[in-house]
């Protein structure tokens, strides 16, 4: 199947700083990318949907000024957690798809805010 | 919107036995039902999927069945092995939607295969 690369896999940052997570589709052009958050022993919670070249659509309750999403090209989307706080610590996962194909997931990023 | 319920939340089986996970969905417009396996600290991996124009699909030890009338679908793993131990998620979506195939996930099933 297609490969989606997510980087970094783990990051520790200080409270108040910003962290950027990258999601790349390596062998296909992703028209749509999704960002999820997953708490321990829970399901994936969709945060936002991004289409290349347009603004991301955020799910209800997700602060768009805190979780900045950029989908500048058909192979790259980034999620920036701004002014991170300990409650933002979580596992963040992206997925990418093209047209009506299945979604391919990245490996996830474990964010710890200290 | 779509709502997906998944049962059981945990499942312990003896190696070699079968495991069955069931999901129900609410939106009759949903037409694509993938199953994902997630190992600790990793992203979900697609293991099998089914579209609403078929009732059953099989891939080696894994099979999925779909009952559109009852709005439920199930994952069957036969001859389970210790490496099948993971968390499994079902999902549902409506393909061909202009906004993209936004998946709605079930709550997950933690499967433990005991040697």
Would you mind describing this structure in some detail?
The complex is a heterodimer of chains A (about 110) and B (about 120). Chain A contains no helices and 11 strands. With about 110 residues, chain A is mostly beta strands. The model of chain A has no long low-confidence stretch (mean pLDDT about 90). Chain B is mainly β. Helices cover about 0% and strands about 55% of the residues of chain B. In chain B, strands 2, 4, 5, 9, 10 and 11 form a 6-stranded mixed beta sheet that branches. In chain B, strand 7 and strand 8 form a beta hairpin. The termini of chain B are far apart. Chains A and B meet through strand 5, strand 9 and strand 10 of A and strand 5 of B.
Name some characteristics of this structure.
heterodimer; A: 114 residues; mainly beta; seven-stranded mixed β-sheet; four-stranded antiparallel β-sheet; B: 115 residues; six-stranded mixed β-sheet; five-stranded antiparallel β-sheet; 53% strand; globular
Cα(first) to Cα(last) distance of chain A is 36 Å
Roughly how many Å is the radius of gyration of chain A? Answer: 13 Å
Average pLDDT confidence of chain B is 94
Strand content of chain A: over 45%
Mean pLDDT rating of chain A? 92
Draw up the topology in text.
The complex is a heterodimer of chains A (114) and B (115).
Chain A: E1 4-7, E2 10-13, E3 19-25, E4 32-38, E5 44-51, E6 57-58, E7 67-73, E8 76-81, E9 90-97, E10 104-105, E11 109-113
Parallel strand pairs in A: 2-11
Antiparallel strand pairs in A: 1-3, 3-8, 4-5, 4-9, 5-6, 7-8, 9-10, 9-11
Chain B: E1 4-7, E2 10-14, E3 19-25, E4 32-38, E5 45-51, E6 56-59, E7 62-67, E8 72-77, E9 86-92, E10 104-105, E11 109-114
Parallel strand pairs in B: 2-11
Antiparallel strand pairs in B: 1-3, 3-8, 4-5, 4-9, 6-7, 7-8, 9-10, 9-11
Summarize the structure.
Chain A is an all-beta fold and 114 residues long. Chain A contains no helices and eleven strands. The mean pLDDT of chain A is 92.
């Amino acid at each position: 199947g297609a490969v989606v690369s997510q980087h970094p896999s783990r990051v520790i940052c200080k409270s108040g700083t910003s962290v950027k997570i990258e999601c790349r589709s390596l062998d296909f052009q992703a028209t749509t990318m999704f960002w999820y958050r997953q708490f321990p022993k829970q399901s994936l919670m969709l945060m936002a949907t991004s289409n290349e070249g347009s603004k991301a659509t955020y799910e209800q309750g997700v602060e768009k000024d805190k979780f900045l999403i950029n989908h500048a090209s058909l192979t790259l989307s980034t999620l920036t957690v701004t002014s991170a706080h300990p409650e933002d610590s979580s596992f963040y996962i992206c997925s990418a798809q093209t047209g009506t194909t299945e979604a391919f997931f990245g490996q996830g990023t474990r964010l710890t805010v200290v | 919107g779509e709502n997906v319920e998944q049962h059981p939340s945990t499942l312990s089986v003896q190696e070699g036995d079968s495991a069955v996970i069931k999901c129900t969905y609410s939106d009759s417009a949903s037409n694509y039902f993938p199953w994902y396996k997630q190992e600790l600290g990793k992203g979900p991996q697609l293991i099998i999927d089914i579209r609403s124009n078929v009732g059953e699909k099989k891939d080696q030890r894994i099979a999925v069945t779909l009952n559109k009338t009852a709005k439920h679908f199930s994952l069957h793993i036969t001859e389970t092995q210790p490496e099948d131990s993971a968390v499994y998620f079902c999902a549902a979506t409506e393909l061909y939607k202009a906004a993209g195939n936004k998946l709605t996930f079930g709550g997950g099933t933690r499967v433990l295969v005991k040697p």
